[in-house]
Amino acid sequence: MDNTIKLLPISWYTAEEYDAAISIMADRDNLPRSYDAWLKKAIHTEQQAIASGYAVQRVIINPKEFSRWCHDRGLDINAEARGRYITEVAINSKSGNR
Q1: How big is the CA angle at 59 (ends 82 and 69), to the nearest 5 degrees?
Q2: Which of 19, 75, 91, 93 could make a disulfide contact with 81, Cβ separation 3.0–4.6 Å?
Q3: CA 22 to chain centre
Q4: Three-class SS string for the chain?
Q5: Is the Cβ–Cβ distance between 10 and 89 less than 8 Å?
Q6: Please, are residues 42 and 66 in contact by the beta-carbon 8 Å criterion?
Q7: Taking the chain, what is the end-to-end CA distance rounded to the nearest angstrom?
Q8: Best CA proximity match to 59, nearest among 23, 16, 95, 7
Q9: Model confidence over 3-61: pLDDT tens digits?
């Protein structure tokens, strides 16, 4: 029996910063327009991941920090960058770095 915990970081936004966050995203047309619609979808995704055996880590995306992070790495501000960012944050928080 494999007791390995599978960690799945997921992008998370606060209600206060959701509009600012999606306004900087190159792929904003692929994101829900409202925080409430996004939250409903995010919770559903989170519940599915947990049901599949994942330990979920919500990684809050601060628009200013994320924009700076992308700029420093020469990345477009999009889904691919979000995935890289939340993975890096999750790894660093697990190892005690941030």
Answers
A1: 45
A2: 75
A3: 12
A4: CCCCCEEEEEEECCCCCHHHHHHHCCCHHHCCCCHHHHHHHHHHHHHHHHHCCEEEEEEECCHHHHHHHHHHHCCCCCHHHHHHHHHHHHHHHHHCCC
A5: no
A6: no
A7: 33
A8: 7
A9: 677 899 999 999 999 999 999 999 999 999 999 999 999 999 999 999 999 999 999 99
Rounded CA gap, 86 and 10, in Å? 7
Locate 64 and state its tokens: 């200013």
Please give the pLDDT value at position 4.
75
User: Residue 44 carries which side chain, given as an amino acid letter?
Assistant: H
- Give residue 98's pLDDT: 44
